[in-house]
Specification:
Blueprint (H helix, E strand, L loop, with lengths): L1 E4 L1 E2 L11 E7 L3 E9 L11 E2 L8 E7 L4 E7 L4 E8 L4 E4 L4 E7 L2 E9 L9 E8 L6 E4 L17 E2 L6
Parallel strand pairs: 5-8
Antiparallel strand pairs: 1-3, 2-13, 3-4, 4-11, 6-7, 6-12, 7-8, 8-9, 10-11, 12-13, 12-14
C-alpha cells in the first residue's frame, strides 16, 4: 500500500517538490513502513532519538491504519530518528502509546527517508482504511499535507471518515 502525500490537509494542490510518500508492506509476522519526504530542516525534538511524545509538533510523516470499530494505529516518523506509535480505540482514545519499534532514518541533502518495522499483531482487526500526513514548519508557516484530505476549518488527522479504502490482503 502506497500513500502519496501530495495535497494540503484540505485538498489543495502542492508543488511536486513538497510531496512525501509512505509505503506499507507486510509478511506473516511484521509490518514495514517506509517513508520518503523533503527535508525542511526543522529543529529536532529536544529528546534523544526513539519514542518521542508530541512528535506531531515537529517535522514528521504520520501513517494511520484503521480497522473495525474505529480501532487504529498511528505511526509517526521523524527525520532525526524520533518516532511515536499510538494504538487507539475510538477517535483520540489512546490505549497504548510509545510502542517500541525498530526505526532508522537518514537525511541526504534536501530529502529524508525512514524505515520502521513492528509486529503485525499491532495492526487493528479488519484493517481496510488508512491515511498519511506530513507536517513541517512552525507558526504561520506550518504546513500540513495529506494523502486523503480531511474536511473542517483546521487540520484534524483523526477524521476517520476521510480515510481512503484499501484491501489489506494485498500487502
Amino acid at each position: 500500500m502506497v500513500f502519496l502525500i501530495d495535497k494540503t490537509w484540505d485538498g489543495h494542490p502542492i508543488g511536486p517538490g513538497e510531496a512525501a510518500r509512505a509505503e506499507i508492506t507486510a509478511d506473516r509476522d511484521r509490518v514495514v513502513v517506509s517513508v520518503e519526504s523533503p527535508f525542511h530542516a526543522d529543529p529536532p525534538p529536544a529528546s534523544p532519538p526513539g519514542p518521542t511524545d508530541r512528535l506531531w509538533e515537529h517535522e514528521v510523516v504520520e501513517v494511520f491504519l484503521l480497522g473495525r470499530d474505529d480501532a487504529y494505529l498511528e505511526v509517526e516518523l521523524g527525520p532525526h530518528g524520533h518516532h511515536l506509535v499510538l494504538e487507539l480505540r475510538g477517535v483520540r482514545n489512546v490505549v497504548r502509546r510509545g510502542l517500541p519499534l525498530d526505526y532508522r532514518s537518514r537525511i541526504e541533502g534536501s530529502r529524508w527517508s525512514g524505515v520502521a518495522t513492528f509486529p503485525r499483531v499491532w495492526l487493528p482487526a479488519g484493517l481496510d482504511r488508512g491515511n498519511a500526513y506530513a507536517s513541517h514548519g512552525a507558526g504561520r508557516s506550518r504546513r500540513h499535507l495529506a494523502a486523503f484530505p480531511v474536511p473542517g476549518d483546521a487540520p484534524d488527522f483523526h477524521r476517520l471518515a476521510a480515510f481512503g479504502a484499501f484491501r489489506f490482503e494485498h500487502l
